[in-house]
């Protein structure tokens, strides 16, 4: 797959209208669900085992989207393929009073992945240039550069992570307004989906254009070589999963993790330790 077409080029104007929300017709749903995706997930698992064993690098996956774009189901269908021992999902909700009493990256830095781990942010520090901006939640004290400074902070933070072995990759799940409406309607019409219903999602939909403007500005300023944004079509969930798995595999290949080898000294002592292990039971048997 040509994943480059979904990657946002650094410092380029972004018009979300120009990014597709739809699947690419060269793939069939059946082929993806039955063959390509299961194979990709298996490969992701194998790479993650090595990343975990190597314990030198980590990956931070950032998920952002409008409501009902499928963040949760992406986590469920793609990232559960990973070994939970080396994977951590953090969902960022409205900040607590304690969190609001700190700088906005405070709660974020505490949740970054350890070496060997894949960390997934379901919403993230980007809420602080999205919902915060759309709803005017901070006092900007007439500072015209307020949002530019936040973009600068975020880029510096992600560069810092990159310099320290944590690779950042970011996905904006791009759903159309019509498809969002269908999914929100399902949450009303289908009893088994009632638990997902939130009246706030319907009210928030009225701010669709403002959100899109905030997203475009964010994508323009924070897609970098070291922490790129991908605008992933989200009207067909199976296609979203395919694109995300392809990007993850590309990243794993770049990181090229290796299971550590024993040192020559350790290797030369293996026979000795085998003997010790075997003799332990013989001793017990002779008692
Ligand atoms: P789902 O609805 O699929 O369970 P969700 O991510 O929408 O998942 P909710 O609990 O519905 O989870 O919403 C979380 C809310 O928290 C969102 O409306 C989001 O904008 C808000 N939020 C997250 N971070 C911040 C922030 N820094 N400042 C203000 N609001 C935030
Ligand atoms: Mg929600």
Automatic annotation (TrEMBL):
Per its UniProt record, what Pfam families does this chain match?
PPK2
Q: Name one GO molecular function term.
A: polyphosphate kinase activity
Q: In its UniProt entry, what is this protein called? A: Polyphosphate kinase-2-related domain-containing protein
UniProt cross-references to PANTHER family, sorted A to Z:
POLYPHOSPHATE:AMP PHOSPHOTRANSFERASE, POLYPHOSPHATE:AMP PHOSPHOTRANSFERASE-RELATED
Domain annotation Polyphosphate kinase-2-related: ranges: 29-255
Keyword Iron-sulfur (UniProt):
no
| NCBIfam families per record | PPK2_rel_1
Q: Which InterPro entries match?
A: P-loop_NTPase (IPR027417), Polyphosphate_phosphotransfera (IPR016898), PPK2-rel_1 (IPR022300), PPK2-related (IPR022488)
Q: Which GO terms describe its biological process?
A: polyphosphate metabolic process
Q: List UniProt keywords, sorted A-Z.
A: Kinase, Transferase
